[in-house]
Amino acid sequence: FKTVMARGLSGCRRLDEEALAAMEAFNQIAPAHNPPYVNGIRQFARRMPGIPLVGLFETAFYQLAPEAAMRYAVPEAWYQAGVRRWGFHGASHKFIAERSAELLGREDVAERARRLYADGGRSPVRSPKLRVISCHLGGSSSISGILNGAAIGNSLGMSPQSGLPHNNRVGDLDSFALPFLMRTTGLGLEEAERLLCRESGLKGLSGVSNDIRDLLEQAAQGNARAQLALDVFVHQVRHWIGAYYLELNGADALVFTAGIGENQAAVRSAICRELDQLGIVLEPGLNAANRAQEGVISSTASRVKVLVIPTNEELVVARETKRLLDREQGEAAGRHAAGAPPPA
Questions:
Q1: C-alpha torsion sign, points 283, 274, 142, 124
Q2: Are the C-beta atoms of residues 337 and 319 closer than 8 Å to each other?
Q3: Using CA atoms, how far apart are residues 98 and 96, in angstroms rounded to an integer?
Q4: Are the C-beta atoms of residues 5 and 13 closer than 8 Å to each other?
Q5: pLDDT at position 255
Q6: CA-to-CA distance for 226 and 202, rounded, in angstroms?
Q7: In terms of CB atoms within 10 Å, which end of the chain has fewer, N or C?
Q8: C-alpha angle 235/296/166, rounded to 5°?
Q9: Distance of alpha carbon 162 from alpha carbon 137, whole angstroms
């Protein structure tokens, strides 16, 4: 399972009742994800009691990110309660870390990315450093800066409702907006949560749709609110690309992935406009022709390779699950060879 988040847990692990309880502890942070996941996992456990149930948490890819990139400026007690940046879309960004390195001829970095959860990033890499900015743009979206196969941060923060504007979900919002509205309009907590999760994002901005395809069509017909939603989305993506370009001291590759990133050439073009001084120059023909195909869409004049890479989160989850089960099997065989009893 591509599980999202849990209190005190990350990485790849068995989904026993302890893990499910830890996921439930964060139901209010990930209301669209954790409750249905937990319910589904328990259904599987009841119907297939002999089958291992394993989850790879989306937060896992950010375990090596600098602490300064993952903290909010809040009281320590809030941090201990879970108020911090967690980062999400970890399986997708990890796949991009692996595959972009392969395409750029850096098998050393690709291997480090593949083994990241197994050895904590200790796999050696050669110079120079490989700097990748990964743009997962879809129904939910995020940007990650990736250095030598490991994330240095992610645009998503404490919850899947943060970061870039999503289809229905709000993205980043000033923390004082809610208390202001509650005090001045009588907005209740449950209604606020509903509006933030279901009526905001591209849907809230446009008043038309949460689907980027509809917004592109409506904007072409002169719908100003649809165009505004597109403009806000593009602005925020460029903002985070710029942030990670600075943190990485440049970039070797800019990667577009997920539903919007793989399929919408017009959005890619808008994001990359007038970035030639940063070494990012699209080849219009390559960009327009690329629809969910792995390949380069930058011009020969571009110092930064701009790539489209279809993501494969399922492959990442499957590999890490196999690694976990193989390790458990090896440990069990070792105990058997030593004559030790199996764990209770």
A1: positive
A2: no
A3: 5
A4: no
A5: 99
A6: 8
A7: C
A8: 30
A9: 14
Which of helix, strand or coil describes residue 207?
Answer: coil
**Is the CB of residue 190 less than 8 Å from the CB of residue 25?**
no
**Which contacts of 107-114 are long-range, i.e. CB under 8 A and separated by 24 or more positions?**
109/148, 109/149, 110/149, 112/148, 112/149, 112/150, 113/149, 113/150, 114/319
How many CB atoms lie under 10 A from the CB of residue 174? 7
Which domains does the chain carry? 90-311 (3.30.420.40)
Q: In whole angstroms, what is the distance from residue 72 CA to residue 110 CA?
A: 31
What CA–CA distance (Å, rounded) separates 109 from 327?
Answer: 23
Q: What is the pLDDT of residues 71-117, one digit of tens each?
A: 999 999 999 999 999 999 999 999 999 999 999 999 999 999 999 99
Structure confidence by residue, pLDDT tens digits, 126-181: 999 999 999 999 999 999 999 999 999 999 999 999 999 999 999 999 999 999 99
CA distance 306 to 290: 12
Looking at residue 245, its amino acid is: Y
The percent of residues above 90 in pLDDT, for the chain, comes to 95
Q: Which amino acid is at 161?
A: Q
